[in-house]
Specification:
The protein is mostly beta strands and about 250 residues long. It has a 12-stranded antiparallel beta barrel. The protein is globular and about 50 Å long. The N terminus is likely disordered.
Length: about 250
């Protein structure tokens, strides 16, 4: 028996054969190509952003440390900062849960504890904290939080840093920190409104990326009721300091 293939039938035959070949090749490629998987690897990071001696009218040691442990989306954050001199030491500690909500931005919430020791006395208070931390456009490092104390006192802070690369290893870092409070809390020397402006300029040299000594200058100015409370206690409302320290990360 002789089979006759008409031209139109022959065209459909080769078209179907071509489609079958493409589908088979695509299936093989999907089987070979590695499939994406959720990455749940646990990482950690610890940064001593400030670890310095400030020389001025009141010589003191100052620190600002931040660290985290977790994955790409969920992290446990630890933060502490403070200063100490011959008469008084102030420190704050934060333990926060952070969630990545946008590229380079973490929403954080947790607790904070403030401590003041000096002149034979000590005092402290605890807060609930919610904040936002990340990189703004043009690579400004921004941290902002609002806190409510156990007594219902509301306070806030904004911190902004920027790394200006003068060379591959020489980096100039401007830094600005502003504190504010809604209520006046005299036992902690805090007035209502903007409390203080703390700004500095630090020049560091990265011997290694994770080890960079620096020098610089820092200026702090108490404002409004906070300045009045400081003067009442015999303290200065403004101070200019020269700083020397080291920036470390692990």
């Amino acid at each position: 028996m002789k089979i006759i293939v008409y031209p139109r039938t022959k065209a459909w035959f080769f078209a179907c054969l071509f489609v079958a070949f493409i589908v088979a090749a695509r299936v093989d490629a999907e089987e070979i190509r590695p499939q994406p998987k959720e990455d749940e690897q646990l990482n950690s990071f610890l940064l001593f952003d400030l670890l310095e001696y400030q020389g001025g009218k009141n010589n003191q040691l100052r620190w600002d440390v931040v660290g985290w442990a977790g994955g790409d989306y969920n992290r446990l954050w630890f933060k502490t900062e403070g200063d100490t001199d011959a008469d008084k030491a102030t420190a704050e500690f934060q333990l926060l849960y952070g969630r990545l909500i946008a590229p380079f931005w973490d929403l954080q919430a947790g607790i904070r504890h403030d401590r003041i020791n000096g002149s034979g006395s000590a005092d402290g208070r605890t807060f609930a904290v919610v904040g936002l931390q990340g990189l703004a456009p043009y690579w400004f490092d921004v941290e902002h939080w609002i806190a409510v104390s156990e007594d219902g006192d509301v306070s806030a802070r904004l911190t902004v840093e920027y790394d200006l690369l003068l060379s591959q290893r020489l980096i100039l870092q401007p830094r600005l920190e502003i504190d504010a409070a809604v209520q006046k809390v005299e036992r902690f020397g805090i007035g209502s409104g903007i409390n203080d402006i703390d700004t500095g300029l630090r020049l560091r040299y990265e011997i290694r990326r994770d080890f960079a000594p620096y020098v610089g200058v820092n200026w702090k100015r108490l404002i409004g009721q906070t300045a009045e409370l400081a003067r009442r206690d015999g303290d200065d409302a403004e101070e200019l300091s020269f700083v020397a320290g080291v920036r470390l990360w692990f």
